[in-house]
Amino acid sequence: MSELEKIVRDYVEAYNSFDIDGMLENVYENVVFENLENGNITLLLNGADSFRQQAELSKSFFSEREQLIESLAQTNERVVIGIRYTAVLAMDFPNGMKKGERLSLSGESIFEFSDGKIIRLTDRS
């Protein structure tokens, strides 16, 4: 397993455990996070502080969550994982989804690295 693959696997494990410090362990201070749904940007964050704030906020959204890595490909300073994502909502949402409902989707996460640290993370679903 390459060092970059290990960083990605550690990140996913920390995400699944709601471990924000673990998620941020290998990110640059000026990391860029982008979430895309159907090709549209739904969230864009710049910097580790913004990333941490969003990660802390999103902890309250789910009572359970899991990213399962279904595929992994590495090229140079980039690792792309195919994921299956499941979660249980911890609260009611304005879009009509209710506390206790199970969310299930698939997508991919693209980790871009510089000097062994995550400089950009893009989630696509």
Shape: globular
What composes the largest sheet?
6 strands, mixed
How much helicity do the residues have? 10-25%
Number of helices, counting only DSSP H or I runs of 4 residues or more: 3
Rg from alpha-carbon coordinates: 14 Å
Estimate what percentage of residues fall within beta strands.
Answer: over 45%
Q: List the uncertain runs.
A: none
Mean pLDDT: 95
Short description:
The chain is an alpha+beta fold.
Structure description:
The chain has helices at 3-16, 20-24, 48-59, and strands at 27-37, 40-46, 62-75, 78-89, 102-114, 117-124. With 125 residues, the protein is an alpha+beta fold. Strand 1 and strand 2 form a beta hairpin. The protein is globular, with a radius of gyration of 14 Å. The two termini are 26 Å apart.
Keywords:
single chain; six-stranded mixed sheet; 25% helix; 125 residues; alpha+beta; globular; 6 strands
Topology record:
Elements (H helix, E strand, L loop, with lengths): L2 H14 L3 H5 L2 E11 L2 E7 L1 H12 L2 E14 L2 E12 L12 E13 L2 E8 L1
Parallel strand pairs: 1-6
Antiparallel strand pairs: 1-2, 3-4, 4-5, 5-6
